[in-house]
């Protein structure tokens, strides 16, 4: 039995994004199981792994259950000391831990008024006094770290602190919230991060649009990098005979810039359609760099 990571909807579950980044960004394998928000309550679906009642939850191969994201980060760092979850420099490590802990326990107004929604972007978001206070505090602590690390990440190389703030960056971008140049540059680094782009592409390919996350504000195009054009097609002859991800035979087709590529299932195709350049195995096949 491998370690199993239970996650919520890719487009909406901010804590699931953080946990996935703690694995994916640091090269740690785990079997992913998605908890469907439309199927039943999360606590009900997780009841067999008591005391877990939320996502993300990690169930280790020995049966150990870790149901808190900060605990998950610390446990991964302990079990995989060479992965680099925390900075090696003591001062930077202390800063990263402080940042992650404050994110874990704070910014309730931002969470409530601007839930993560990677399927939409808005303008004209109302900014209450309490929301402005959250944004001001975020800018203060980001600025403190970035002034010392010189960016693009908070404490030097990408760390737990950045994984924890990835959904905050998505909220600031997705709701066009007012922040200064330094914070905008940090937000842009997240939106351009290939791992973040892969997560968002999977969210667009899998799961329903959940209307309770929608807001009645003017909509904008997604503010991240513009994906290379691509579309799903039903007929054609693919350049490849096996899926670049699984190695299985091609059954589903995609066209991009006049070329046709094949995949082993609809999800492999659709996640690639949503952002072709985010997927190294596909890019290597497309560009002949295998």
TrEMBL record:
Asked if the record carries the keyword Transferase, the reply is yes
Q: Which Gene3D superfamilies match?
A: 1.20.1050.10, Glutaredoxin (3.40.30.10)
Q: Which UniProt keywords apply?
A: Transferase
Stored InterPro entries: Glutathione-S-Trfase_C_sf, Glutathione_S-Trfase_N, Thioredoxin-like_sf
The Gene Ontology biological process annotation of the record reads: glutathione metabolic process; L-phenylalanine catabolic process
Highest taxon of source? Bacteria
Q: What does the record give under GO molecular function?
A: glutathione transferase activity; maleylacetoacetate isomerase activity
Give every GST N-terminal domain span: 3-84
**What's the protein here called?**
Glutathione S-transferase
